[in-house]
Write a structure and sequence with these properties.
By secondary structure, the chain is of the alpha+beta class. It is built from 14 helices and 19 strands. It has 2 domains: 249 residues, FAD/NAD(P)-binding domain; 177 residues, no CATH class. Bound molecules: flavin-adenine dinucleotide.
Length: 440
């Protein structure tokens, strides 16, 4: 390794690479230590390998995606936002495009190109990168940073940027080390929990029977009560929850969203479930939680009843099972037949009004009591982290240890899916790099 460095960055993820690149661009000598054998392992997984790196929403809409902690990001976003990120990537030959849903991807649809662009950025600034070096602590002398402790010994520095990520998908290297390092400096770590994660049903056996059912364009509503006590008249007609500013859920509703979901062998997954998972898991701290899925949200009960009745009349000589296939995903046909009490081979004309009403009720409110989140390791993002009360939002500097800076998921910021988390990592990383450079 070349001599001493003024700035050490811990972690070569999205936040750490841009922080190192920016500090080096401003003329500082920068060392980036990464515990894995190569950089950006998590970036490679993002957007199913295509890297959804930002979103076309305006800044207020962007900030709303982060919930109550979003305001903390405002100054970082003012300093370095989507267009700045795209301009930086374009400097290294990588163009991006915005899809109709607002998500921004590299035109190559290849996350590897994003990692490559940041490697070039760092190489331009002559950042020294050391792989397979694990940081274990920050060295402080007389209240000021003097370096870091690592698996290969102490390394001196005048400023340290902690960009070690969260603790989800630990195989990427994000194993929560940043929390321990910050806690040793006196920082508060806001309770860690999975931020975007599947939900585990209390009745796993029920879920298992429906395993593999893909639910398209359904309305999922999470309630603060057991499934048996759900009052469907409270289901809102619009989406409510994080990111829908001005639409605050009214008790006992936790969140309600339309979109796609899937029933798994343990419970519920899919985009709409992941988006609702954090609020749902947090609500579980205070009592029972359940989820109601409306499989036909575009039709009210009366309209659906008429449709079902017409289908049973028109196709009276066909088995119940075949008629249901027109209304339900295949994987729900058998379990729904069992739950309505009508044998699947019963003819349409023999279906009683009670059986039809049971089917209608199930289609308008398929319910699951929820026992918890699937594992942290499968979450897309870590909620909680270093308390924002102890970080200067303008500089990303620690308010407790002079010369220490934070950026990315190690802080208590997390958003839903859509490119928000990566943009936050890039924006805060850029600011941390710039601030550390001006500090030294
Ligand atoms: C499957 C998946 C898909 C995702 N898709 C998207 C998406 O499409 N869009 C989006 O915006 N977000 C997405 N995210 C979230 C996003 O990837 C993260 O929020 C983002 O990568 C966080 O960046 P970071 O730099 O803070 O942390 P990380 O990317 O986790 O990087 C932290 C780095 O620090 C290193 N490190 C940790 N501890 C040490 C140590 N002690 N010493 C040295 N190095 C250390 C790690 O090895 C790692 O390389 C996805 C996440 C997952 C898991």
């Amino acid at each position: 390794m070349a001599g001493n460095h003024q700035i050490i960055v811990i972690g070569a993820g999205a936040a750490g690479m841009i922080a190192a690149g920016r500090a080096a661009e401003l003329g500082d000598s920068v060392l980036l230590v990464e515990k894995m054998e190569r950089p950006g392992k998590k970036i490679l997984m993002t957007g199913n390998g295509r890297c959804n790196l930002s979103n076309s929403r305006d800044m207020d809409g962007f900030i709303a995606q982060f919930g109550a902690n979003g305001r903390f990001l405002q100054s970082a976003f003012r300093r370095f936002f989507r267009d700045d990120l795209l301009a930086l990537l374009a400097r290294y030959g990588l163009e991006c495009r915005t899809k109709a849903n607002g998500k921004v991807y590299p035109t190559t649809d290849n996350a590897r190109d994003v990692v490559r662009a940041f490697q070039h950025y760092m190489a331009d600034g002559k950042v020294t990168v050391r792989f397979e070096v694990s940081a274990t602590g920050v060295l402080v002398e007389n209240g000021r940073v003097s370096g870091i402790k690592t698996s290969v010994g102490d390394l001196p520095a005048s400023a340290v940027i902690i960009a070690a990520g969260g603790s989800s998908h630990p195989q990427t290297g994000s194993t929560g080390d940043g929390f321990h390092i910050a806690a040793a400096l006196g920082h508060t770590i806001v309770r860690l929990r999975p931020g975007l994660v599947p939900l585990v049903a209390t009745d796993v056996a029920q879920a298992k029977l429906m395993q593999g059912a893909g639910l398209r364009n359904v309305r999922v509503t999470a309630f603060r009560c057991p499934a048996g006590e759900i009052d469907l008249s409270l289901v809102p007609g619009v989406d409510v929850g994080r990111g829908f500013d001005g639409q605050r859920p009214k008790l006992p509703i936790i969140e309600s969203r339309t979109g796609n979901a899937v029933i798994t062998h343990f419970g519920l997954s899919g985009p709409v479930i992941l988006e609702m998972s954090l609020a749902t898991i947090d609500a579980l701290e205070n009592g029972p939680v359940s989820v109601s899925i409306d499989l036909a949200p575009d039709m009210d009960s009366d309209a659906l009843r008429t449709e079902l009745q017409q289908a049973f009349d028109r196709r009276g000589e066909e088995p119940y099972r075949d008629i249901m296939k027109d209304f339900l995903p295949l994987k729900l046909v058998q379990p729904f037949a069992a739950m309505t009490g009508a044998p699947p081979d019963k003819l349409g004309k023999q279906i009683t009004s009670g059986e039809r009403e049971s089917l209608l009720d199930l289609m308008k409110s398929l319910r699951f009591d929820i026992q918890g989140a699937y594992s942290m390791s499968t979450s897309l993002v870590t909620a909680g982290g270093i308390s924002l009360q102890e970080i200067d939002p303008g500089t990303m500097a620690s308010l407790l240890a002079e010369g220490v800076y934070f950026c990315g998921e190690v802080m208590d910021v997390d958003a839903g899916t859509g490119g928000y988390n990566l943009q936050a990592a890039f924006s805060t990383g850029y600011v941390a790099g710039e601030s550390a450079a001006s500090f030294v």
